[in-house]
Design goal:
Blueprint lengths: L1 H27 L9 H22 L1 H8 L7 H36 L7 H7 L4 H7 L1 H22 L6 H6 L1
Helix pairs in contact: 1-2, 1-4, 1-7, 4-7, 6-7
Length: about 170
């Protein structure tokens, strides 16, 4: 039951963050969508949600499989260690994926398209300018740190060994 609750909390957190970034993407690039009918924007939003669900499933497959493996028989300490590793993996993997979405907020203005695999070829050319770019777009750097903080908080709260009763978690 705890694994199901943990999965639902993580899924809702990720969907919320992806949706928030989608709203922010529209807001930052609003001038590029002035001639697009509202109905098309809603369709794009719904298609984007489907894409987000697929991306979340793909990104978290290994974490989900590892969370199903029980190590309690070996030692309770291993179970706590597994929870720590899974929480850290959830934070780092999803933080990286969401950071790519944050980069898209500004990258789209320059290229007219979202990040793709060929974008990473360009990244090699600007690798030496990373610090300068992070400084110039400091507000996106802060947003990335906030995303990692939110994911870390959810992970700590989700994977900690709770001392409350099982029913208390259902209320939360």
């Amino acid at each position: 039951m705890a694994t199901v609750r943990r999965t639902i909390v993580q899924l809702l957190t990720l969907l919320g963050l992806y949706s928030l970034l989608r709203v922010l993407f529209y807001y930052v690039n609003q001038q590029l969508f002035l001639k697009v009918p509202f109905g098309d924007i809603v369709k794009a939003w719904l298609n984007g949600m489907r894409y987000d669900l697929a991306a979340i499933a793909l990104i978290n497959t290994v974490i989900a499989i590892l969370s199903l493996i029980s190590v309690k028989r070996l030692s309770p300490k291993f179970e706590r260690g597994k929870a720590l590793v899974l929480g850290l993996a959830f934070t780092l993997v999803n933080g990286f994926a969401l950071s790519l979405n944050i980069i898209d907020l500004e990258y789209f203005k320059f290229t007219g398209k979202r990040l793709t695999a060929d974008s990473f070829l360009l990244a090699r050319d600007i690798g030496d300018q990373t610090a300068q770019i992070a400084w110039y777009y400091w507000y996106y750097s802060i947003l990335m740190l906030a995303v990692y903080a939110i994911l870390g908080w959810v992970s700590l709260r989700n994977y900690r060994k709770d001392s409350k009763s099982h029913w208390a978690w259902i209320i939360i």
